[in-house]
Amino acid sequence: MTSHTFVISAYFLCFLSQILFWIILGGIDEIIHSNTKNENEPHFFVIPGFFQFSYGCIGSSAMFGIIIAEALVYYIVEWITLVLCIRSDRDTWNIKKETLVHVIVQPFLVILFIVLGSIPIIAELVDYFVPYLLVLLAGSVFEIFVCVVLPVCYDIRLDFIRNGGLFSINSKNRNITSFSTTEILLKDPKTYSIFLDFARRSYTPEPVLCWTDIQKFKKLPKKDRKEKALKMIDSYISLSAPLELNLPNINVMRRDLLNIIEKDETNIPIELFENVETLCLQDLLDLQQRLVDQNDFIASLVE
């Protein structure tokens, strides 16, 4: 599950760091300017000053150097992230592939922007009609197209194939999904490992792991059920839990389970997580369908 707290905190820290960077540089610039003998002399970094908001800033070579230095910092962070991306396992959503494609195109657009800016006729004439800065905007448009539009198109095409559309003339009908099929795949050690690995690379291993723990819970003697049940509730059925399940009204479900446990701690029913198990299997239906579409071995077993 995605941690909204982490995402919001990351965005806030990035925003705050930029504000602090601006204030620090502005303070340094004001100190340098205040020590000059001529008050009409332009500021060192930004000619009117960092805190002059009555009109637009006027660039200088010093400011250009700051922008380049800051851009390099972001590029270093991006390349570190790229290395981690390359070292990671290939996901089932093609996110890694899309990232690599975008990273390859990005430097090309930056170089094109620099080259266009160095051509006098473009910088002095064409830019008045079609700003060459749009080259960088094209990078953002390309990213949206590759990372947002294409995945939607892939999914529409896949649904079209599953439903017997025109694209399915030479394809097999693999629309075989049911709770019984899912349970058969999960109960076999060989297919279970394939299922779990596919779920992990799909960023949704929680239903598989929870289903596994439920099966273990059913085999426990009564005296050991409470400890296992509480651990499972904290791991899967709690907001912001490490392996939080995608469940409706998760707080209500957590409360109901705890009430059952507290009612009779020594006689916790074996069916305690029956509804959770059903929801896990339901959540795995789409995952199973995609696994069947992408894994010929699994497809041969369920067809």
UniProtKB/TrEMBL annotation:
Domain RGS: from-to ranges: 181-274
UniProt-listed InterPro entries? RGS, RGS_sf, RGS_subdomain_2
Keywords recorded for this protein, A-Z: Membrane, Transmembrane, Transmembrane helix
Q: Which residues cross the membrane?
A: 6-25, 100-123, 129-154
The record's annotation in Gene3D superfamilies points to: Regulator of G-protein Signalling 4, domain 2
The answer on whether this UniProt entry bears the keyword Membrane reads yes
The protein depicted here goes by the name Predicted protein
